[in-house]
C-alpha cells in the first residue's frame, strides 16, 4: 500500500506557533510551515528506508502508539541550522517475548576513547568524525512489530504500520542498529576489540585503522589516510553518513 502525506483539514485547534517555538504536539506543528516540512522530511526518510508498510488490523494484534518529537538544531556559532522532527514509537507498549526480546547494545567506553585518541595524536594521524543520519532506521527487525499510523500522515483506512525496520523508541532499536553496523564492519575486515565491543580494528600490511562507535556518532582514525578514506566512503555507501571532518569535540572530550 502506498504511503504518502495526507492533508489534515481539521487539525487547527489553536493559533499557529511562531516558527522558533518547539511544538508540544503534532497538531501545533502542522500549522507551522517549517515544522510541517521537517515532518515531511522524516516521513520521506522512513519511506526511503523501507521502514514500514500499511497492513490491515487483526484481532488480538498488539499495536504500539507513536508520537512526534521536535527540536531546533543550531550550528556551532549559535545560528539556526534546521528544524528536526522525529517519529518515535511508544516502546512502553511493547511486550517481552512478543514484539521484542534482547535489548542490550554496547557503547564505547570513555577509557577506550582516551587511549585511541592518545595513540592517534602521538602519531599525528587525522581523526575523523561521522554522524549517521536516522541511524536506527538502518536496522532490520526480526520480530513482528505493529504501530499506529501517525498524525499528519494517516490515510484514513484504519490500517496499521507493520515495522520492517527499526524506529526510534522501540526497545530493541539500539541493539538492531548496532548489529547492522557491526556486521558491516566485520564484513569489511575489521575485528572487535576483546576489551570493548564498540571498538573495531582493521590491520592490513602494517596499517591500522580504528573505528569507535557511540550509537550514531563514529570516530575513524588510522595510520594510512587512503585506507581511512576508503573506510569512510564504504560506510557512506552503506548508510546515510554526514562527514563532520576533523574531530573537535566528542562526548565532552
Automatic annotation (TrEMBL):
Q: Which residues form the Reverse transcriptase Ty1/copia-type domain?
A: 52-253
Tree of life domain = Eukaryota
Stored InterPro entries: DNA/RNA_pol_sf, RVT_2
In Swiss-Prot or TrEMBL terms, this protein is called Reverse transcriptase Ty1/copia-type domain-containing protein
Q: Which organism is it from?
A: Cuscuta europaea (European dodder)
Amino acid at each position: 500500500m502506498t504511503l504518502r502525506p495526507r492533508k489534515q483539514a481539521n487539525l487547527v485547534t489553536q493559533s499557529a506557533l511562531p516558527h522558533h517555538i518547539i511544538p508540544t504536539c503534532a497538531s501545533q506543528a502542522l500549522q507551522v510551515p517549517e515544522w510541517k516540512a521537517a515532518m515531511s522530511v522524516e516521513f520521506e526518510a522512513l519511506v526511503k528506508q523501507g521502514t514500514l508498510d500499511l497492513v490491515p488490523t487483526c484481532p488480538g494484534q498488539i499495536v504500539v502508539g507513536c508520537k512526534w518529537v521536535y527540536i531546533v538544531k543550531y550550528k556551532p556559532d549559535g545560528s539556526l541550522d534546521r528544524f528536526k522532527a522525529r517519529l518515535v514509537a511508544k516502546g512502553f507498549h511493547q511486550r517481552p517475548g512478543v514484539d521484542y526480546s534482547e535489548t542490550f547494545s554496547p557503547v564505547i567506553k570513555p577509557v577506550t576513547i582516551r587511549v585511541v585518541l592518545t595513540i592517534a595524536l602521538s602519531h599525528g594521524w587525522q581523526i575523523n568524525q561521522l554522524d549517521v543520519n536516522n541511524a536506527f532506521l538502518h536496522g532490520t527487525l526480526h520480530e513482528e512489530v505493529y504501530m499506529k499510523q501517525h498524525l499528519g500522515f494517516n490515510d484514513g483506512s484504519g490500517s496499521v504500520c507493520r515495522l520492517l525496520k527499526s524506529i526510534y523508541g522501540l526497545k530493541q532499536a539500539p541493539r538492531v542498529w548496532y548489529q547492522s553496523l557491526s556486521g558491516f564492519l566485520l564484513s569489511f575486515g575489521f575485528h572487535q576489540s576483546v576489551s570493548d565491543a564498540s571498538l573495531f580494528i582493521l590491520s592490513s600490511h602494517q596499517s591500522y585503522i580504528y573505528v569507535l562507535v557511540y550509537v550514531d556518532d563514529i570516530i575513524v582514525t588510522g595510520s594510512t589516510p587512503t585506507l581511512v578514506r576508503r573506510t569512510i566512503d564504504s560506510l557512506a555507501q552503506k548508510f546515510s553518513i554526514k562527514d563532520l571532518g576533523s574531530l573537535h569535540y566528542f562526548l565532552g572530550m
